[in-house]
Design a protein that fits this description.
heterodimer, A: 502 residues, alpha+beta, Arc Repressor Mutant, subunit A, 3 domains, elongated, B: 99 residues, mainly alpha, Histone, subunit A, two-stranded antiparallel ribbon, 3 helices, 3 strands, flat
Chain lengths: 502, 99
């Protein structure tokens, strides 16, 4: 990162918002999970070998003609409807002309003044308060290729000797969702920005139109921010922080830019209209590219593509396919599950909502499902540095382990060993129990013998229990469990001890 | 009705299109471009408010394709026309210099 000695000091967020109000704008790009690209039949698999999913259309070879992917239009309309947008009766694609090798055509096919969806809104619940975010537009466009910068410092474009281009991603359908300016109480702005992006992610997952994975770039957020002095109506110059790649980063990017803008303005300098790059490591931003002549994109209607005019019948049919809105669904689940607000927040925050839903569907109680995913499994996922959904255990398997406990066939300790076996790929919970011989001994004959042995070996303890000091039973339970190598139902052992020493 | 186009305008357009123009060409195009604009303006006059804008010669909407994968090019085919390639990728010259 270049150091500018003249860069004014940051003003701590809390102090900055005493004097300035942030004005936000969020642009979110959603990569659709269609099987093929926006304008050609190339596959869209993530992580394929370079340039294996390309054709004359997405390589911009002469004479190639694009044709619109019907599924992408359908997804665009469904997204628009879910954002409470109007759906255009007639709209066109446009060429956004620029010279940069990530698009071999020298233009990106996008939509300009005729977006397919416009004038929508979403309502967000943030810390018990509802905020309405207005959506200006959602339009269709295509993704760009991936550049690899060779030579120079650590893959940066500046000073690179040359660049290598993989066009597998070029032409994958994108929906760009643009908000109107967002003005909320300054102290809430970072959380509202985060909640908005999270809401869009949930919506995309519920609509089943995108993987919406920020870590894989299938959902990308740009944070536009300017400050205005409190009480003033004049908008400041804005910065555009690009490709902020996690929910937490959205929040951090807002906080950092507020601090930076305030520092620049306090020093009597002016904010440069530029793009900024976000740095995950320290939550800072650094200068990207200034706005310049190069941003004159000379948009014009794409002559190679026919206009799109979705019939009202089609739009209504698609409206009928919309899922329950995420916020309403969460409220319904919370009440069905009997979760407290805190339980629900923890579950959602841990990214475990869908896993709990599936575990409950597989037969576990909501409380048990939550206990596994937010307890033992969260700990293991954390240790392995992976997401809960990447842990290698399915909700069905978790429900299976819980069923073993409920049937009294394993205790909590054995259940964790069963889970370990499942995670190690040893098969279903049943198979692990059989293979590892993990079932508890609930046969009173075998347990009774072990209890008798423990009483005989610990006469002092036994006497205490006879004298009514029931809590002393713990030592005997421990001895029996040790004898049974943990494979006993501790509750039953306790009952037997107390019966025998009554 | 011809509006003059300044040398600066021509130079700006040329830079957007990545075309390098000589001094003579800047002068010549500054004179020629207004003639083209006048021609377009004549079409605009003919199109009154009741004539909808048209972007295609044939009125046709909703030309869609099913979302079905079709074979494309192999990497070798894709790279065959590239002046240079490396690691199965298109090699392009330096994009930006040092900052």
């Amino acid at each position: 990162m270049s150091t500018q000695t003249s860069t004014p000091a940051l003003v701590p967020f809390e102090r900055a918002i005493e004097r300035y109000d942030p004005v936000l704008g969020l642009e979110v790009h959603v990569e659709l999970s269609t099987a093929t690209k926006m304008f050609c039949g190339c596959a869209t698999a993530f992580g394929a070998e370079p340039n294996t999913q390309v054709c004359p259309v997405c390589l911009g070879l002469p004479g190639a003609l694009p044709v619109v992917n019907a599924k992408a239009v359908e997804s665009a309309i469904r997204i628009g409807l879910a954002l409470n947008c109007e759906i255009a009766e007639w709209c066109r694609f446009a060429r956004k002309n620029y010279f940069y090798p990530d698009m071999p055509k020298n233009f990106q096919t996008s939509q300009y003044d005729e977006p397919i969806a416009f004038d929508g809104y979403v309502d967000l619940d943030v810390e018990g308060e509802t905020f309405r975010i207005e959506v200006e537009r959602a339009h269709m466009e295509e993704d760009t290729g991936k550049s690899l910068h060779v030579g120079g410092a650590t893959g940066r474009i500046h000073g690179a000797d040359h660049s290598l281009l993989d066009y597998n991603r070029a032409g994958i359908p994108l929906i760009e969702i643009v908000t109107r300016t967002i003005e909320v109480p300054a102290e809430k702005a970072p959380a509202v920005a985060r909640a908005y992006v999270q809401h869009l992610r949930d919506l995309m997952v519920a609509l089943d139109v995108s993987d919406a994975r920020m870590d894989q770039g299938s959902l990308r957020a740009d944070v536009n921010l300017s400050l205005k002095p409190k009480g003033s109506a004049t908008l400041g110059t804005r910065s555009e922080t690009k490709n902020v790649n996690s929910f937490r980063s959205v929040e951090r990017a807002v906080r950092f830019e507020v601090s930076r803008h305030a520092g620049v303005l306090d020093a009597g300098q002016s904010i440069l209209q530029e793009t900024r790059n976000f740095h995950e490591a320290d939550g800072s931003t650094s200068p990207g590219r200034p706005k310049s002549d190069a941003d004159d994109y000379r948009y014009f209607p794409e002559p190679d593509l026919a206009p799109v005019s979705p019939s009202r019948e089609w739009v209504e049919e698609l409206r009928g396919t919309l899922p329950e809105p995420p916020a309403e669904r969460r409220k319904r689940l919370q009440s069905e599950w009997g979760f407290s607000d805190l339980d629900m927040r923890d579950t959602v925050g841990a990214g475990a909502l869908e896993l709990v839903v599936a575990t409950v569907a597989a037969g576990a109680t909501p409380a048990a499902a939550k206990k596994w995913w937010l307890g033992e499994l969260a700990r293991r996922a954390n240790e392995a540095g992976v997401g809960l959904d990447e842990l290698g255990v399915t909700p069905e398997q978790v429900a299976g382990v819980q069923a073993l406990i409920d049937e009294g066939r394993v205790n909590d300790k054995l259940a964790r060993q069963v889970l370990e076996g499942v995670l190690a790929g040893e098969g279903s919970p049943e198979e692990v129990v059989t293979a590892r011989g993990l079932e508890v001994v609930s046969d009173d004959g075998a347990l009774g013998a072990a209890v008798d042995a423990a009483i005989a070996a610990n006469p002092d303890v036994a006497q205490k229990i006879r004298d009514g000091k029931v809590q002393a039973a713990g030592a005997l339970i421990g001895a029996v469990m040790k004898e049974m190598r943990g494979q006993a139902d501790a509750g039953r052992v306790r009952e037997l001890i107390l019966e025998k020493l009554a | 009705m011809s509006s003059a186009i300044s040398r600066e305008d021509v130079a700006h357009l040329a830079s957007l299109a990545r075309i390098s123009l000589s001094e003579d060409e800047l002068d010549r195009l500054g004179a020629e471009l207004p003639a083209i604009l006048d021609h377009v303006a004549a079409v605009q006059e003919a199109a009154s408010a009741d004539v909808p804008a048209m972007s295609h010669p044939v009125p046709i909407d909703n030309v869609f394709r099913d979302d079905v994968v079709r074979p494309g090019l192999t990497p070798d085919e894709a790279l065959a026309g590239a002046p240079a390639s490396e690691e199965q990728r298109f090699l392009v010259p330096q994009i930006l210099g040092e900052d």
